[in-house]
Amino acid sequence: MLRNNSASRWTRTITALIVALFATVAAVRLFLNDPQDGQTSQVVQGTDIAGYAGDQFIEEPQIVVAAPEPIAITLTIEQTESLASLLEDAGLSTTDAQRWSWFFEKQANTARLAKGHSVTLYKDPETGGLRALKYALDGRVQVSEVTYGDEVIRTSEEPIKYVLRPVGVFFRMRTDFDHEATRNALPQPIVTALESAFRDRHPLNDLPRGADVRLIYQEKVSRDGSVHEVTGLEAAKISFAGKTLTAFAFRDENGEPHLYDSNGGALGPESLRFPVNFDYISSGFTERRFHPILHEYRPHEGVDLATHYGAPVKAVADGRVQAAGWCGELGRCVRIQHQGDIVSIYGHLSRISVGLVPGDNVEVGEVIGRVGTSGLSTGPHLHFGIERDGRYVNPLTASLGFHHTVSPRMRALFDRFKREYLATLNDLPDVAAHPTTSTVAVSHVSPAPSEADRADRARLHRSVIQLPESGLPNVETATSADQSDIGEFSERLGR
What we know:
Nuclear Transport Factor 2, Chain: A, elongated, 25 strands, alpha+beta, single chain, Glucose Permease (Domain IIA)
């Protein structure tokens, strides 16, 4: 009996221990597991879609409609006026116009728009509201204003980016050249270049009716089309009564641009007798002159040309600026280096042309400053001097001796450019097909156009040189190349 009780007690004890062990394990497992894991597991098990978050989080996609392109309106300022006044004329309220003007003035340091400058307004085609504007401060920098709504306006200065565009023009003379130039909207710099080139060959106003005028000039155009600037005449061909006048732009071995005839001779005046229109010579070139301020005798190494204060002073020949600034007793002065170790000197200036600095190239007749009385001077006049080989010579008797011709070394390259120019000029639309002016941008296409292209006379078929700077053929690289390399050089220019 006792043995049976003992066995029963051991059985109950073991059973209790097993039950306690299972209870302990269950409690520990319940304690260590995150209850959220169970919830997440249930959610994941409840769907086959990754990232499912329930129907309550799904929204309808929004459709964004792009704003229509603004309408660009470019204006040339006819007379100086305030930006606020212009914007009011353009339809803005006085408050809005003044707000735009206030931001503009902070950036440009002026609220006024200068005569001859361009401004472009970008208006919303639906509401007519102003989105942005651009104003050219000068030929290099423009002020840009953009609105982001809620009266937020951002203003900044940015450089004007240009592209070069050769333009071909063809017309037949009906009246005198001045009227034809106006009627055909030739830029004034091109008219001046043509008149200067042919003045000694055949004055343009003496051309007979029926004369054919073909020319190519190049202009810089800002990428948004708001700023245009003519860079120079590229080529011209005028035919009348069995005669032909031609001009071709080319750079000589010194890199100086010039116009040449078909034989390689320079066109236009190559030097001026005097740099200013003067009333009289107040002091001549002498080894002994009594100085009116220093009260002593000393050499006067130039001539004094008396004229009114502010008269324009012009470079007497093509050259490169050697100095432009204060020159001691001569006050404000400019020194220009010409070919043949010749230097021209212009002293006592009231001011030097804006932007003129040493190293700049200048052309004959270009205004380099204004007459003044700076330095040791008793009244407004220009001191004009000439150095040859480092020694002063008398400007009244010295000959500058300029006579530009294309050098034999560069002749083959010049002839190649001339053929390109003539081919393009001859390919301009003819009068019979286009009785009025034909003006087209010269495009760069294959040098061997198809017959279909030739039939489309509104487009030129040959490549006119489109080069850096003024667009004139740049032969500076070619000066160090053998003539056998001219073909390769022309290919690099895009021939």
